Amino acid sequence: MTQPTTLRASRHALSRCLLLALAAAPLLAFAQEAPDSLTLQLQQIRAQSDANNRAATIARYSALLAEHPGNGDVLLARGRTYAWDGQYAAAEADLQQVVQNSPTYADAWSALGDMYRWSDRPQQAADAYSRWVELAPQDPAARIARGRELRALGQTAAARADFDAAASLGADPAEITQLRDSLLPRMANPDVVASNGYRWGASLGWDHTRFSGGRQSWNDNDLTIRRYFPRGSLGLELLRADHFNTADTAWALDGYAPLWSRAYANLRYQHGPSSGVLPRQAWRVEVFQGVGSGWELSASVDHLRFSDNTEFYGIGVGRYVGNWYGRYKLQHVPGVGSGSWSHRVLLRNYYKGDADDYLEVSVSSGRSTDLDRFGSVVRDNNAAIGVAWRHQVSPRWGFKLGAGYADDDAGFDEQRVSGSIYTRW
Known about the structure:
By secondary structure, the chain is an alpha+beta fold. It has 10 helices and 14 strands. A 14-stranded antiparallel barrel has the order 1-2-3-4-5-6-7-8-9-10-11-12-13-14.
């Protein structure tokens, strides 16, 4: 039986519609996935950006903002570029506008935190990263970023909690180990703290001091074995000094121990010959106290006994900023009249971000500005300068090289070189 003409036409039209719909489906999907014009322009600017010419990149973002006023993605991109370029006020203005208009934009809070971190505002950085953590609770990078700022603020327990949370979220185990180690007390003497689970260490050192005016050179040697603890260490030292054709030996115990919150002490006792170039006995007590954001105060007493007794009283202030450490120490030796005073400034850079590798320079003047273990610097210097390089060649082996110059008040110039080898297990 023949179908009615109208029914056949309807079926034919329906078939054509279905075919057209199937043919158009990939095109529709592509249109939905393809980036819009603004996204393409942002991608092009990022691809063509030049770290050596950020002004041009910022100008392109500004032109794009003129076409799309208040657009959050463009403001975020320009704000990040301002921050990379060190224009922190402009970066803050852009990024604050983004988070005010879009308070749930996680990337914007991350960028704002970075900007505050780079401009040395740890509390504001921690606050911004906290919003990032709230918006991206499963992102380990957010926890790590906030933990670093809490560490800078001296909030060790909270920082450790963030690092532990990042570990549970799948962060790199090696990075987490380094971050946890970084929460150990930062000390003015980084060589007395071990990381990566090592419990023992040893070092062998040699110092050579040459004098002008025909004065005989000095040679000093030391061997140290040190036991590391979670928050301190104890070292046994053997010292040998060869000065003025006289060679003496001494032994010493040198310990670093935690006290109360953000405080630790250096306690040292040294026993030498009954007479000679090394003191009969020497002891030191120095207490360090962390305060504020990265500041450290200290007070010390040193006692040296030769044929008579000499004491030194010191106060110091140190500052940790990122991978930099600086310290000033004022020291007083009682005596006739007002006694004598000395000044010492030290600047150290941990160029790899750990406690094993650093460069440092020190400048000093006055009496016994840099008391060493050999008791050989109980004298006056008009001015002295020293440099040192500490480098870890492998996880177990490292070395330290040093050099210095001093203008001795007695009329002698001094040139000093030193070297040490370190190992740990």
